[in-house]
Amino acid sequence: MNRRKSSIFATFYIFCGLCTLCVFPGVTHVFGQTELHGADSVFQKNGMAILWAILKGPDEERSWVYIKILYPEDDPRAFQIFSVEAVDPFAKEREWEIKGKKLRRENVIRSLRSSFKDKAERRILFYRDTAEYDSEKPAMTIFYMGVPDTSPELLSEKEVNDYFEKALGRLKK
Q1: E strand or H helix that includes residue 29
Q2: Model confidence pTM above 0.70
Q3: Using CA atoms, how far apart are residues 87 and 108, in angstroms rounded to an integer?
Q4: At 76, is the pLDDT very low, low, confident or very high (cuts 50, 70, 90)?
C-alpha cells in the first residue's frame, strides 16, 4: 500500500509541475529572478525591446549578428546594468560578450555569425543596481537558443538600421 501511495503522490507532483509550466510558459522565477525565453527576433517585455538582425557578408566568417536593446529613457530605470553571455548549450562553457555595461536607451551588440557555432545560446542579464551586479544575481534574464529564425538577413548597415526602425514602429502600435 505504501508503494502505491508513493506512486500516486509522485504522479500528482509531476502533474502539478507540468500544469505550472503550461499556465506560466516562458517565465521561470528563481529566488526572485525572472528568466524569459526570447524566441523571436522582435521581443518586448517590461518596457524593453530586443531586436535581432543579420548583416550578411560574403560568408559566415564575415557576417554579423546585431542585437539591439531599446530601453525607454522615461522609464523609472528598473534596470541599470546589463551583460551578454555566450553559452555552449552542451558543455555549458560560458564567455562574456558584454559584462557590466551601463544600460542606455539604445544598446547595440555585434557578434560574428560564426561565434554562434560553438556558443549558440545568448543570455542577456539585466541588473537593477551595482549590488545585484556585484552579487551576480540579475533581476531578469532573457535567453535565446541561437539566432532567432525570424532574424532578417540584410546586405547593408542601412538596411539593418531601417529594419530596426520599422520593427520598433510595429511594436509601438
Answers
A1: strand 27-30
A2: yes
A3: 19
A4: low
